[in-house]
Amino acid sequence: MSLASTPPSLPGTITDVAGIAFCHSTDTRRPTGCSVVSARAGAVAGVDVRGAAPGTRETDLLQPSNLVQQVHAITLSGGSAWGLDAASGVMRWLEENNIGLSTGYGLVPIVPAAVIFDLGVGDASIRPDAQAGYQACVAANNKTVEQGNVGAGAGALVGKLYGMANAMKGGVGTASITLDGITMGALIVCNAVGDVMDPATGQLLAGARPADGKALLGARDAMLQGRLPLNLLAGTNTTIGVVATDAVLHKPQAQRLAQVAHDGLARAINPVHTLLDGDTLFALGTGQSSRPANMLLLATLAAEVTARAVVNAVLAARGLTVGAQTWPCAYDLNPTS
């Protein structure tokens, strides 16, 4: 697979899904930010948390047995738990634009959120806030989605099992597939403790590096050969994201799509769903195709676009230097093949 100097050509973006708009807010003071996937007409939603150290907001209401049937946006953010504040800014913008759940006493926009831990990259006192979420909504559109070192993925790293100094740059990736009149898209922020590989080729793309930093160590093989990982702080990694479709979904179906989308993470990240990660995926159904859900097809597509979006996240990322520390990207280690 070519690792070109421009964003990769794996197809599609989450905004190919009718009813979905998207934008990033990237902080210029240090590598961090937030990314907002909005469904302003409302979308049926589900969630599935597989990592042991998640940072989330408004996930309980997505359980199929609970009352609220639709959400209006999903916020993905850096900044660890501090970054959950970005969702407040998203709510403010939605309310100003008359979008939200009608309560009889005003509108309440429903905005679940999840965060990654990027506080080890630069000044940890700088993190996304409500204004960052608001600005992302102002800029949201249904056109091109920028990938790599932007938004919630600006400070994302991968391959930290053998220390931050031996990690590589992660980021934001997206992909979509249209089949049988239905579109499925994904937006993934990859900040995994594990390595990232291309499941289509088996090629290791980014992850832990040996002491000289010039190649990929291969964390799985290193562990199987007896090289134990470092004792890392739980929750300082995480892959989060959204899968979305224009098919008509009910809440149990949306929850199921969020569950099977994690299969895509497992294809592209190893190890995944660890005690050190807070891996969380949301699923949205806008219903704008008016096509009923073929769950076998949708489940297959959800896992596929998730895996592709993970690959795109590391292929689009670019090397990052903060102070004396440099984290290379996939392109830096292998610019031609």
Distance between the termini: 5 Å
Computed structural class: alpha+beta
* The top level CATH class name: Alpha Beta
Kindly report the name of the CATH homologous superfamily. L-amino peptidase D-ALA esterase/amidase
Number of helices: 6
How many strands appear in the DSSP assignment? 18
CATH fold assignment: L-amino peptidase D-ALA esterase/amidase
Itemize the secondary structure elements and their pairings.
Elements (H helix, E strand, L loop, with lengths): L20 E6 L6 E17 L6 E2 L13 E7 L8 H11 L4 E2 L4 E2 L4 E3 L14 H10 L17 E2 L9 E2 L1 E9 L2 E10 L3 E4 L4 E4 L12 H6 L13 E8 L5 H18 E2 L9 E6 L9 H22 L3 E3 L2 E3 L2 H4 L4
What structural keywords apply?
21% helix, L-amino peptidase D-ALA esterase/amidase
What does this molecule look like?
With 337 residues, the chain is of the alpha+beta class. The protein has a single domain, classed as L-amino peptidase D-ALA esterase/amidase, CATH 3.60.70. It is 21% helix and 27% strand. The chain contains six helices and 18 strands. The chain has helices at residues 86-96, 130-139, 219-224, 251-268, 295-316, 330-333; strands spanning 21-26, 33-49, 56-57, 71-77, 101-102, 107-108, 113-115, 157-158, 168-169, 171-179, 182-191, 195-198, 203-206, 238-245, 269-270, 280-285, 320-322, 325-327. Helix 1 (86-96) crosses helix 2 and helix 4 crosses helix 5. It starts with 20 loop residues before the first strand and ends with a helix. 59% of the residues are buried.
